[in-house]
Amino acid sequence: MTEKNTRQRRHARTRQAILDAAQEIITERGTDGLSIREIASRIEYSPSGLYEYFSSKDEILDALCQEGFERLNTQIIFRVTSTEPAQRLIESGLAYLEFAAQHPEQYLLMFTSTVFHLTLEQLAYNSAYSSLKRLIQACIDVQLFKVRPDYGLEEIAYQLWSLLHGIVMLRLTLFKHQDATFDTFNRRIIEEVIRTMLVS
To answer: Which residue did the predictor score with more confidence, 155 or 7?
Structure first.
């Protein structure tokens, strides 16, 4: 292994250690408790040295949000195993709920951070949203979903994402103390909504 590769691997490990420490602090204290000094203390690094990796706290928050979407996409890909297009879409929705349940603090950061923003146009480059669109397109391709000139892939994708996000946010906030039967209730809603969209 060359010296350059060794430096790159060390740089990647330190960068990830910074993000992991930042996520821990946010989980414990919220974003207001996050500081460069506290991160440096957690990973036994000099505060000034952290600026080699991130120029500010906001840049760290932005990186955490992007990492969250990548992890969400990975979970969707891992959980979608069916060969039937509509069932694959249902599985992706359940994987979305599962990710939020397993990583509530990161999910909330992804969607409530004041430093991370996307436009509808930029969503096309979001890995998790792109996966959702591909699964919907597969349903359209085999004519499981009926599309109209004024209501096609983009509208269906946004509709389903809004449903998933709404369910998750209610689960993580207003209904956070509900028991596990509430999750079964949510899963049933996702399955039924997707099935009602199928061409009869």
So the answer is: 155
Per-domain residue ranges of the chain: 1-55, 61-196
CATH number of 61-196: 1.10.357.10
Half-sphere exposure of 49 (CA within 13 A, CB side): 12
Predicted local distance difference test score (pLDDT) of residue 68: 92
**pLDDT tens for each residue of 133-183:** 999 999 999 999 989 999 999 999 999 999 999 999 999 999 999 998 999
Q: 173 CB contacts (<8 Å, ≥6 apart)?
A: none
Cβ neighbours of 91 (radius 10 Å): 18
Contact at 8 Å (CB) between 109 and 61? yes
Bridge partners, 174 (sequence order): none
> Quick check: 145 and 86 in contact, CB under 8 A?
no
Percent of residues, the chain, with pLDDT higher than 90: 70
For the structural domain made of 1-55, what CATH number should be given?
Answer: 1.10.10.60
Of 3, 194, 186, the C-alpha closest to 101 is: 186
